[in-house]
Amino acid sequence: MNEVSKRFEQLVNSVYKKFIDNGVHLPVKTAEGILVGNVLIKSDGPLKDIVVNGVVKFNEISLNCVAIKIANNLASGKDENITNKLFEIDREYSKYFIDSKFHLDNYHKAVNNNNEARAEILWTRYDLAKEKALDAKSRAEYLTGF
């Protein structure tokens, strides 16, 4: 049985090394947050901060896939242009997501107040913001594909 355990440990170490060689650092949960290489992802509710050596490099990231990819890029020393582009897309997603929630709440208020013209305008604004948020999320997920 000891031989099986030793072989399994070698296999795990081999796979882990292959991930690192390919520039993918596996996330490890710690008491402070999620550690990816030497980069820490700290969660504050739905938003995440990326911390390197105690310094916040990126803050208030909404999408988990973006946070993990940015952390991997920083840990691997990869191209900053892609990292910055991902952060911009996440900001865009956040803006449109919040806008869509705001317009939807106001739409419901307009419906409750029987203000049909305002409700129609707010529904259109909600729908546009929701579509833009979904588009930004799709672009982020495409760029974060491991």
Provide an overview of this structure.
The chain has 146 residues and is an alpha+beta fold. It starts with a helix and ends with a helix. α2 (64-76) runs antiparallel to α3. The radius of gyration is 21 Å and the shape is elongated. It has one domain. 64% of the residues lie in helices and 17% in strands. The chain has helices spanning 2-21, 64-76, 80-112, 116-143, and strands at 27-29, 34-36, 39-44, 47-52, 55-61. Strands 1-2-3-4-5 form a five-stranded antiparallel sheet.
Write the layout of secondary structure elements.
Layout: H1 2-21, E1 27-29, E2 34-36, E3 39-44, E4 47-52, E5 55-61, H2 64-76, H3 80-112, H4 116-143
Antiparallel strand pairs: 1-2, 2-3, 3-4, 4-5
Give the overall shape, derived from the CA principal axes: elongated
The number of distinct helices, counting runs of at least 4 residues, comes to 4
Q: Looking across the biggest beta sheet, what order are the strands in?
A: 1-2-3-4-5
Please tell me the overall pLDDT: 90
Number of strands: 5
Q: Biggest sheet, open or closed, and with what strands and sense?
A: 5 strands, antiparallel
Structure classification = alpha+beta
Helical percentage: 55-70%
Which regions are unreliable across 5 or more consecutive residues at pLDDT < 50?
none
- Please report which band the strand proportion falls in: under 5%, 5-15%, 15-25%, 25-35%, 35-45% or over 45%: 15-25%
Number of domains: 1
Gyration radius, to the nearest Å?
21 Å
End-to-end CA span:
35 Å
Q: What is the chain-wise order of helices and strands?
A: HEEEEEHHH
